[in-house]
Amino acid sequence: IIAASLLCANVNAFTACPLHYAVSLTMTKLSAEAGDSDDDEKPDLFSSEGWPAIEQELDTVPIFTVANEKGQPLQYTVEMKDQEPFSVPFFYTHAPDALEELEKTKKATNLEGIDIVPVPLGKAFKMWASDKSVIIPNKDAILQAGAPPGSNPMGQQVPLFACMEIAQETENGTPVLPLFFALEEANEAVEMATSADGGNPDDFEVVSLSLPRAVEMLANSPETTAFQFIPPKSSIDHIETYLSG
Asked: Which of 173, 178, 235, 239 has its CA at a distance of 20 to 30 angstroms from the CA of residue 116?
């Protein structure tokens, strides 16, 4: 993951992509604010003292975008009902999904030198919260989190999976809960934990929560909440293959 940061896209520069998506996006999302008080009293999450630590933790996870040879993410024109079309980059939580989009883009355009590149999740999340990007979760993951069959991943919130019983305590006693982007990887972690410490994996429940909710929890209760975001194995495998090639 550290090596992947050297390959990150230039998220401050973009290039147009002649593709249009007529979709119904769910733009209701985590406000870029923390706290439970009135809106005019809420502190800005991204200018708060706690955001750098949250962003650093999120940035351990690479997500992926289709970019030109200069590392500039392609911008897609998205059309929504009752709104003017707008252009944003698409970020994919799983490398295979980004690769699929890459092949579609190659077939639909004459763009040369395009490829997928990793982007730190924290930076992408900040853009997403400001309506400057779309983060697209894995289709299987949203179904496993309870989305109806046939749901379009575009516009869905990113689901995360966790088992409360396998949290590990830090030196100061704060439990650190691993959050997975794939249900099967959370289940594998439960099996490993029960294999080492005893117990029946069937007795341990894996639950889902959204990425915005996880960030909100970190922002609201930094003293008692700690997460370790675990990148999808498919994404790590892609980066390792790229670096070794």
From this structure: 178
Location of structure tokens 């390959």: 7
Dist CA 34 CA 93 (whole Å): 24
The model's pLDDT over 158-196, given as tens digits with 9 standing for 90+, comes to: 999 999 888 887 777 778 999 999 999 999 999 988 887
**pLDDT score recorded for residue 41:** 41
Q: Where are the alpha helices (DSSP H) in 109-169?
A: 121-129, 139-144
Closest to 138 measured CA to CA, from 97, 88, 185: 97
DSSP output for 26-48: ------SB-SSS-GGGPPBGGGS
Here the tokens at position 17 are: 């992509």
Helix (H, G, I), strand (E, B) or coil at 162: strand
